[in-house]
Design brief:
Shape: globular
CATH superfamily of one domain: Hexapeptide repeat proteins
CATH topology of one domain: UDP N-Acetylglucosamine Acyltransferase, domain 1
Strand content: 25-35%
Largest sheet: 6 strands, mixed
Distance between the termini: 44 Å
Order of helices and strands: EEHHHEEEEEEEHEEEEEEEEE
Number of strands: 18
CATH architecture of one domain: 3 Solenoid
């Protein structure tokens, strides 16, 4: 059982609802951040247009800043582990600011998918920017700001994240 806005819901009923109903994207994103149930987070992740491999662990409080033009926005390989508070940014723009109409601002607007290779572990409060590819078997340290690709078999952390050493 779980409570959403004061209403008690049986988990099996909620999972069956996800099989048939269409939810507003904002509601799904909020539920992705707040639900403590892994199976519900996995289903929401795919409903939002992302790809997940086998045995992926999606922790709570994951933030996804995505683009409706990109499908998939984020691809997670097999056995990827996401710690709490990871932020994926696949669409970066000035939103309603007048800057988005300026020619010079166009080069700073990015819309690219994020790829995380199999068997990688993303630490708490990591931010991953548009177009980043994190290789297979990588560890990204907590509170890192990943702005560039990380090759396979690496430990990386920092702001901006840098490869600290090879794991193999």
């Amino acid at each position: 059982m779980m409570t959403i806005q004061g209403v008690i819901i049986r988990i099996d009923k909620l999972i069956s609802i996800f099989k048939v109903k269409v939810f507003p994207t904002s509601m799904l994103r909020n539920l992705l951040k707040t639900t403590s149930h892994l199976e519900i987070r996995r289903r929401i992740w795919t409903k939002l247009g992302n790809e997940i491999g086998e045995d992926v662990y999606i922790n709570n409080n994951i933030i996804l800043i995505d683009s409706p033009e990109l499908r998939p926005n984020v691809s997670l390989g097999d056995r990827v582990a996401l710690a709490p508070y990871v932020t994926f940014i696949t669409s970066s723009s000035p939103n309603n600011s007048r800057l988005k109409y300026e020619e010079y601002a166009e080069r700073y607007i990015k819309r690219k998918p994020i790829i995380v290779g199999e068997d990688s572990w993303i630490g708490t409060s990591v931010v991953i920017h548009p177009g980043v590819r994190i290789g297979c078997r990588c560890i990204i340290g907590s509170c890192s700001n990943v702005t560039r690709d990380i090759p396979d078999d690496c430990l990386a952390y920092g702001n901006p994240a840098k490869v600290i050493r090879r794991l193999i």
